[in-house]
Design a protein that fits this description.
mainly alpha, 79% helix, transmembrane, 101 residues, transmembrane helix, Cyt-C_aa3_sf
Length: 101
């Protein structure tokens, strides 16, 4: 019944945790999108060297992480993406030198 409801006495812990999770996923997704688009823009549209683009993107990602108060997991993810970019870019450059001239 509507008369049983007392304002302010409902437990909203589940709703709050769901909302907090939604915000966290939104922030993570947004930052990953920004970092990815920034790297691709610098490397392909601007024409920067891939390594310079990767370093600049990592710096920007770190600054954004600090600005948004991200936890250690963000920096570990950013470092992993940096290493992944180094490996992929190095392999492409190596194969380009070996087969492309």
């Amino acid at each position: 019944m509507a008369s049983d409801y007392v304002r302010g006495e409902m437990d909203i812990a589940h709703q709050k945790s769901t909302f907090d999770g939604f915000i966290a996923v939104s922030v993570w997704g947004s930052l990953l999108t920004v970092v990815s688009v920034l790297y691709l823009t610098l490397a392909f549209a601007v024409g920067m060297d891939w390594l310079v683009s990767l370093i600049a993107t990592a710096i920007v990602g770190g600054v954004l992480g600090l600005a948004l108060g991200m936890k250690t997991s963000w920096y570990v993810t950013l470092g992993g993406l940096f290493v992944f970019g180094l490996v992929c870019g190095g392999l492409v450059q190596l194969f380009g030198m070996a087969f492309g001239g």
